[in-house]
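Task: sequence design from structure.
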């Protein structure tokens, strides 16, 4: 069994998001949403995990994250997404890229391409 660690990325009054690390490497994420009686989870994992490993990971999430936050919940419902990470996108990064592109365009437009 892999040694899982959970690093919280965000938290609100009714939800939390965690990056899942296995053996020191990021391998997935889980988003938890708390209601008065049920906790809902969205688990994103790589294709390489077996069904037994998925069940073990869900049990770890339940025991270490859900039960510590809501020990009296009636159910824990998990939707599992299997695939690979395509990237992490941020408005801040997009704005920086746009500014760099604008600066490059301004440098190129500085002349008309003809020698005088």
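Answer:
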């Amino acid at each position: 069994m892999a040694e899982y660690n959970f690093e919280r990325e965000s938290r609100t009054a009714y939800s939390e998001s965690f990056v899942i690390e296995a053996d020191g490497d990021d391998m997935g994420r889980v988003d938890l949403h708390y209601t008065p009686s049920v906790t809902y989870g969205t688990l994103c994992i790589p294709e390489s995990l077996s069904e037994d490993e998925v069940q073990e990971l869900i049990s770890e999430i339940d025991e270490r994250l859900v039960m510590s936050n809501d020990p009296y919940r009636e159910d824990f419902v998990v939707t599992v997404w299997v695939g690979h990470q395509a990237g992490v996108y941020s408005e801040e990064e997009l704005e920086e890229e746009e500014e760099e592109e604008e600066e490059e365009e301004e440098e190129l437009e500085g002349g008309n391409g003809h020698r005088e």
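DSSP finds two helices and five strands in the chain.
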